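Same chain as my last thread, 87 residues:
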Amino acid sequence: MLEISLTIITIIALIISVAFVIYQRRQKGITGFKTALTPICFYLIAIINLVAIWTESLGIITWMLSILLLFLAAYFTKFFPQERQQT
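reply #2:
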């Protein structure tokens, strides 16, 4: 029962989050694939953990993939557009 409820909550949160990220990118006029890599890495972490819960394989491979994607997400933040400060 716990797995089903966690899955439903996570999927709803992912759908809302993806819609919000797409809305924010369009509103700010951000284009390009490199700027989308950080959110993609975070979404992949959530999906990998969902699969790990359902397959009951919460082992070292899942942890290593999560850490690797977290490092990649941090690395790809350098492609975020810089906001200009008005002086």
